[in-house]
């Protein structure tokens, strides 16, 4: 039974004030929703009476009961739990979880456990009983040249041999029917698909350490390329999360930034990031897995927008879209624990390459404007720069606005020349040199890129041209639709008149 189709998204129900949950899922034969985040201070006796296919304690190997007792959670990287265990435990130094996650196994000689898999110590660290330790400074100084060259050569050779071995094994597997792409796709879900692929890799001769490394690499890639679904942005669960955290009925995304991360209990703080293995993950790795997927559209927008504006604009996009979409939205896909809490941002020398690489990889852009009349979009340096780069790279751009703004723009079009002139003047008011960013360091970086390359006037001219072309295309579309509707009215009047004349002739006969 898919409970979501009956109850909607229930992962974030606020149930702390409920006094009696008995019989909530009475007589359901299966249960497949994640409610491990529910506040269970209320009475939850007999909540699953009659449900027979729910991952609840006792839990399978590699997982343990969630903190609220409602379901099983997979153990974090480097932790294990035997079948039926009450909690996950960390593997001791020098060991990693087995393939089943039920026990730990020792790392091969010459390696230590780190981030959930075995790896050698990197120079200038030396393998000791408790892990990798820094060599004495004098020894490092005396032998630095020889050791650096030798160790680097050996490590490169070793990694090359390991990589070659793994690749050869995968090639053999592909020839024998193993589908690595299918494994990658199945990894978007947690249970139980990965175990089937793990067993296949073991039969091909790969070690547990090699398999775990492959899985971690795939999960890291998925984390970096995962986008948020429009369905999640439009969901009651996200709206509830935003309002409860911020204390506002209609917060903007700067309000949510403070409420989600710059607070005592940041979202995702207890989830290891697949990208670096450290605690604290991106929102896209924290939210329900069914609401994320391979990025299809790069969203150009600003955190000053209110939730209602994004909700309305995305609803407009959904009404016109014919395929599934997953948005690259910086709020969701960037690890804000690293950016906001640790201030480990991208250097200015890397900013241009990383942004252009992401935009090129995703392949299409959706630009969200809050309004046509003096839009915030054209006063923010990031969005102005994104429009310029999209034009430079020939990336197709779709413009959307909230429904009220779209209706207002259409009213202006109906006013004829004066209305169209007002639209074009407002949407061509671009001044990149004086555009702003919330983070002054970002503002300086982006303006530095513009100043050192094509210059502000060039950017302004390009963005003005894009905006005017867009609004003129909308005007043309509206005009064509009005002409088409008028033609249909004429046809209908003609048919009615013809029918009346035939009726009159018949009556005279």
From TrEMBL:
It holds the Pfam family DUF285. SUPFAM superfamilies: Growth factor receptor domain. Keywords: Membrane, Transmembrane, Transmembrane helix. The chain crosses the membrane at residues 134-155. InterPro entries: DUF285, Growth_fac_rcpt_cys_sf. This is Tyrosine-protein kinase ephrin type A/B receptor-like domain-containing protein. The lineage of its organism: Eukaryota, Sar, Alveolata, Dinophyceae, Suessiales.
């Amino acid at each position: 039974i898919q409970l979501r189709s009956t109850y909607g998204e229930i992962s974030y129900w606020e149930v702390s004030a409920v006094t009696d949950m008995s019989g909530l899922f009475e007589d359901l034969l299966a249960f497949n929703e994640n409610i491990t985040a529910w506040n269970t201070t209320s009475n939850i006796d007999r909540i699953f009476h009659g449900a027979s296919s729910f991952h609840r304690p006792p839990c399978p190997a590699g997982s343990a009961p969630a903190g609220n007792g409602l379901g099983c959670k997979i153990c974090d990287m480097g932790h294990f739990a035997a079948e039926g265990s009450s909690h996950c435990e960390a593997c001791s130094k020098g060991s990693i979880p087995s393939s089943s996650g039920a026990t730990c196994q020792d790392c091969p000689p010459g390696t230590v456990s780190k981030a959930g898999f075995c790896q050698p110590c990197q120079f200038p660290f030396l393998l000791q009983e408790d892990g990798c330790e820094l060599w004495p400074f004098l020894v490092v100084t005396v032998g630095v040249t020889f050791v650096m060259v030798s160790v680097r050569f050996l490590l490169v050779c070793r990694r090359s041999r390991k990589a070659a071995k793994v690749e050869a094994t995968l090639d053999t597997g592909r020839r024998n029917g193993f589908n690595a792409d299918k494994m990658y796709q199945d990894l978007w879900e947690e249970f139980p698909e990965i175990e089937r692929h793990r067993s296949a890799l073991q039969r091909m001769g790969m070690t547990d350490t090699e398999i775990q490394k492959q899985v971690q690499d795939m999960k890291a890639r998925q984390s970096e390329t995962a986008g948020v679904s429009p369905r999640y942005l439009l969901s009651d669960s996200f709206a509830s999360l935003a309002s409860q955290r911020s204390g506002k009925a209609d917060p903007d995304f700067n309000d949510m930034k403070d409420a989600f991360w710059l607070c005592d209990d940041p979202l995702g703080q207890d989830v290891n990031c697949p990208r670096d293995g450290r605690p604290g993950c991106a929102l896209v790795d924290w939210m329900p897995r069914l609401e994320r997927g391979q990025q299809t559209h790069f969203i150009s927008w600003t955190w000053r927008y209110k939730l209602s504006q994004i909700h309305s604009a995305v609803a407009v996009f959904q009404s016109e879209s014919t395929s599934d979409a997953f948005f690259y939205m910086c709020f969701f896909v960037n690890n804000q624990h690293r950016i906001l809490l640790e201030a480990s941002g991208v250097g200015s020398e890397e900013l241009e390459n990383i942004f252009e690489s992401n935009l090129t990889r995703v392949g299409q852009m959706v630009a969200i404007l809050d309004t046509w009349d003096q839009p915030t979009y054209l006063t923010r340096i990031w969005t102005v720069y994104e429009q310029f780069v999209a034009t430079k790279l020939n990336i197709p751009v779709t413009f959307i606005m909230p429904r009220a703004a779209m209706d207002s723009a259409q009213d202006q079009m109906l006013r004829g020349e004066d209305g169209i002139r007002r639209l074009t003047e407002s949407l061509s008011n671009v001044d990149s040199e004086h555009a702003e960013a919330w983070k002054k360091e970002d503002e300086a970086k982006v303006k530095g890129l513009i100043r050192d390359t094509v210059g502000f006037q060039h950017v302004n001219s390009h963005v003005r041209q894009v905006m005017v072309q867009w609004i003129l295309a909308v005007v043309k579309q509206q005009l064509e639709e009005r002409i088409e509707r008028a033609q249909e009215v004429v046809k209908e009047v003609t048919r009615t008149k013809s029918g009346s004349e035939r009726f009159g002739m018949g009556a005279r006969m």
